[in-house]
Amino acid sequence: MSERAKAGMNIRRTILGDAHVDRAEAAKTEFDTPFQDLITDAAWGHVWARDTISLRERSMLTIALLAGLGNDHELAMHIRATARTGATQDDVMEALLHVAIYAGVPRANHAIKIAKDTFAQMGQGEGQ
User: Fold this and answer.
1) Helices and strands in the chain: count of H runs, count of E runs
2) pLDDT, tens digit, for every residue of 32-52?
3) What ranges do the domains of the chain cover?
4) Could you tell me the CATH superfamily of domain 53-128?
5) Can you tell me the distance from the alpha carbon of 88 to that of 5, in angstroms, rounded to the nearest whole number?
6) Alpha-carbon distance 71 to 54, whole Å?
7) CA distance between the termini of the chain
8) What distance in Å separates the CA atoms of residue 71 and residue 23, rounded to the nearest whole number?
9) pTM
């Protein structure tokens, strides 16, 4: 494993948690190994491991982009990751307000529902 891939795996575990990464690794097959290697190296090793902005800021950017593109499953995963990135519910709302203006109110409205449901599942009821 390359140094970048090692850094990627470390930050992936930091952001998503060992349980999530262990499940993903256990579910990996010969077919999807190239994709898993790509995201570990490129997304986690090249982007998330950079020290130019904080994990909180990366989290907010990621949430806004996922919401704006309608990537709901990934959105919920990154909402859960806020427990590790330091992004607060207020931060998430700020990101989703930007989504409403720059990507569309329907996308933001749906993302807010996902965020509320996900925060509730995390034991962080609305407004906490």
Assistant:
1) 7, 0
2) 999 999 999 999 999 999 999
3) 1-52, 53-128
4) AhpD-like (1.20.1290.10)
5) 29
6) 23
7) 41
8) 20
9) 0.91
